[in-house]
Backbone:
């Protein structure tokens, strides 16, 4: 039977997602936010989530809705600052100790996810050495430089925004929409892509930016 | 005293970028360096969200929400550009493929320590982004900042008071008053503006300054700040 990863709705795309899940969400700099899937996750309503997302709050992302809806226990991110005068839903909860924060330098953030999808449990990086973000982490000297041990991140669900998909789950991205999509899809047990269009034809190999092997479900959103 | 304004500081920093370099310009003031490159200089601007070859800002009617730089600015691609994912982009940074990064800062210490990521804003969450990666791994880290804080306190210090971004990384600092290198013996003034004495400059600095033997006048063409 031909492989077919298409589903008909964002609700169907999230079937099986439960409380306590670790959820990757793509998007950076205004591009590549899977906002339809984020909305569907809010409607599905699992609690006690750990979000792995670049920004806890971004003007163009709906991630904050999950936080405002008290579905989130912890955020692993590189930016946790709101944009408005008033504190964001994340900042309010963080100040009241109602949500956990793990702040990670962006290159270590993406490499930890890459490692998670690539079978590497941990790696040494020079980034963050001597700063409070790596306090307590193992340090090892290679040559004349100090490196910090960073552990891989894996998760239960990846919400990925892409441009086009085919029924095999192959994806293409537009410009900076790609950002964390390729690594997040590799590190989750269930990877779901929302795309502008699912092509009827299988994509030509030279256009595929993420092999469908890493993508479990695709849903077209208008 | 002919102190530089913020855009004149970026102009001065841009003059040190040389032909063929791969350059990452930090969010905020540093991105404006690309407006003031010397005309004979052709560089590749890398943005950490994966744009390898950032072009000028997009015209309003051509702006594309998917074509943004790391500062969320809607940009264009220059001919020959490519786009990669974040993991590859940061591997490029960490792997030492960025010749120069120019970053904003709150404080720089005489040993090159940099503090630029967390001002400890009350009631606000922290934000680190790619600052630590760039500061720790670019081949050369240069900083643009005002010489003193709004309250007049020095930003060039013996030891940083704010949380560090990376240790012993800054090579050169451009301020409104001076161009200062970070050498093995601490701060070395290469240029400073007209109308200020060496003693005055030292007073505005929280660590000992040495003046280079060929110390020059720091001058920039007039550049108006936007309203």
Residues:
């Amino acid at each position: 039977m031909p492989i077919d990863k298409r589903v008909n709705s964002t609700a169907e795309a999230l079937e099986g997602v439960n409380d306590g899940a670790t959820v990757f969400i793509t998007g950076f700099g205004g591009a590549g936010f899977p906002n339809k899937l984020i909305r569907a996750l809010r409607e599905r309503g699992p609690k006690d989530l750990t979000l792995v997302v670049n920004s806890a709050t971004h003007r163009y992302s709906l991630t904050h809705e999950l936080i405002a809806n008290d579905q989130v226990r912890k955020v692993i991110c590189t930016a946790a600052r709101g944009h408005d005068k008033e504190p964001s839903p994340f900042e309010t909860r963080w100040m009241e100790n109602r949500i956990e924060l793990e702040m990670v330098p962006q290159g270590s953030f993406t490499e930890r996810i890459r490692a998670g999808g690539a079978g590497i449990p941990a790696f040494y990086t020079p980034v963050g050495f001597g700063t409070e973000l790596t306090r307590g982490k193992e340090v090892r000297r290679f040559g004349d430089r100090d490196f910090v041990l960073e552990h891989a991140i894996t998760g239960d669900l990846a919400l990925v925004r892409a441009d086009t998909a085919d029924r095999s789950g192959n994806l293409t991205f537009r410009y900076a929409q790609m950002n964390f999509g390729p690594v997040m899809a590799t590190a989750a047990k269930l990877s779901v892509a929302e795309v502008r269009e699912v092509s009827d034809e299988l994509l030509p190999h030279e256009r595929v930016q993420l092999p469908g092997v890493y993508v479990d479900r695709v849903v077209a959103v208008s | 005293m002919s102190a530089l304004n913020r855009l004149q500081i970026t102009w001065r920093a841009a003059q040190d970028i040389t032909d063929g370099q791969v350059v990452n310009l930090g969010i905020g003031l540093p991105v404006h360096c690309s407006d003031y490159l010397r005309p004979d200089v052709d560089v590749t601007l890398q943005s950490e969200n994966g744009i390898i070859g950032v072009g000028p800002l997009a015209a309003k009617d051509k702006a594309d929400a998917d074509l943004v730089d790391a500062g969320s600015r809607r940009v264009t691609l220059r001919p020959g550009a490519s786009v990669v994912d974040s993991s590859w982009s940061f591997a490029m940074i960490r792997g030492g493929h960025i010749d120069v990064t120019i970053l904003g800062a709150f404080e720089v210490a005489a040993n090159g320590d940099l503090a630029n990521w967390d001002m400890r804003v009350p009631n606000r969450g922290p934000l680190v982004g790619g600052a630590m990666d760039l500061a720790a791994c670019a081949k050369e880290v240069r900083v643009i900042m005002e010489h003193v804080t709004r309250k007049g306190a020095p930003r060039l210090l013996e030891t940083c008071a704010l949380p560090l971004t990376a240790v012993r990384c800054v090579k050169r600092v451009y301020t409104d008053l001076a161009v200062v290198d970070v050498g093995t013996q601490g701060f070395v003034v290469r240029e400073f503006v007209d109308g200020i004495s060496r003693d005055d400059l030292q007073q505005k600095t929280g660590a000992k300054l040495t003046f280079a033997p060929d110390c020059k006048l720091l001058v920039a063409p007039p550049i108006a700040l936007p309203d």
